[in-house]
């Protein structure tokens, strides 16, 4: 059974990242759903969204937090979304989501963000091969810093579009190569957006269970599970 999860509030990035440019957005409520087994999810956790410009990172996050979708493109500098997650046992967990810029990579900021991150979502557009290549390079960068077992989810957005360039099998192969989960979504149609966050929670839960503070056998088990968690 899935449990409704309460969200909202958005706050500025600058206090945390000492970054002078801020996009402030007003908070609104919305629900999404946690997966069944979230016992290992920490009380507070953070997820960072990466990907090329215009792939739909902000649109996915706006769908999650406000339920809205805007066709007009506004490049992100950096932004932060604060979400309250209610787990199945009704205890609450706080999720911070970092929305990053595809236009300006800010490598120094990426290191800071990754240092307090529990998982990464790497988004590409199913309408552009180039953005899949960008995603692959981003996964490599993340794994170089956080290690190969760090929870990463590869997401193909714009599955509603008729101008598809990336076939499912190609993206899936890439995800398998780097032990990521793979999911196709549409922010425009609100398709698979809740599933994406469920997948993030599942991935973090498995990582906490099989990898953090555990022995070699558990780590191997986690690696096998990672290879299998393809959605
Ligand atoms: N057809 C379609 N268009 C989408 C979808 N998601 C986003 N877009 C459009 O793609 C454009 C870019 O979306 P954003 O969410 O701003 O992209 P971004 O990845 O945050 O871009 P940066 O902030 O520059 O890194 C916008 O014009 C959106 O309306 C989708 O699911 N389907
Ligand atoms: Mg954006």
Automatic annotation (TrEMBL):
Annotated InterPro entries: P-loop_NTPase, Small_GTP-bd, Small_GTPase, Small_GTPase_Ras-type
Any Pfam family matching the protein: Ras
Superkingdom: Eukaryota
Keywords of the record: GTP-binding, Nucleotide-binding
Protein known as: GTP-binding protein Di-Ras2 isoform X2
């Amino acid at each position: 059974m899935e449990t409704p999860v309460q969200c909202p509030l958005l706050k500025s990035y600058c206090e945390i990242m000492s970054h002078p440019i801020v996009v402030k957005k007003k908070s609104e409520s919305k629900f999404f759903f946690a997966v069944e087994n979230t016992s290992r999810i920490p009380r507070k956790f953070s997820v960072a969204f990466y990907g090329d410009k215009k792939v739909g990172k902000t649109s996915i996050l706006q769908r999650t937090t406000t339920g809205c979708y805007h066709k007009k493109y506004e490049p992100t500098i950096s932004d932060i979304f604060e979400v309250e997650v209610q787990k199945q046992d009704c205890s609450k967990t706080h999720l911070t989501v970092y929305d990053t810029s595809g236009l300006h990579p800010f490598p120094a900021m990426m290191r800071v963000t990754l240092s307090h991150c529990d998982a990464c979502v790497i988004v590409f557009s199913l309408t552009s091969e180039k953005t899949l290549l960008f995603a692959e390079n981003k996964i490599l960068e993340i794994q170089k810093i956080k290690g190969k077992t760090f929870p990463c989810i590869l997401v193909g957005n714009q599955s509603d579009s008729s101008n598809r360039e990336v076939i499912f099998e190609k993206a899936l192969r890439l995800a398998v190569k780097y032990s990521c989960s793979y999911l196709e979504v549409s922010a425009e149609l609100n398709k698979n957006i809740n599933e994406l966050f469920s997948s993030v929670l599942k991935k973090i839960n498995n990582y906490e269970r099989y990898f953090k503070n555990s022995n070699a056998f558990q780590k191997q088990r986690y690696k096998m599970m990672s290879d299998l968690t393809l959605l």
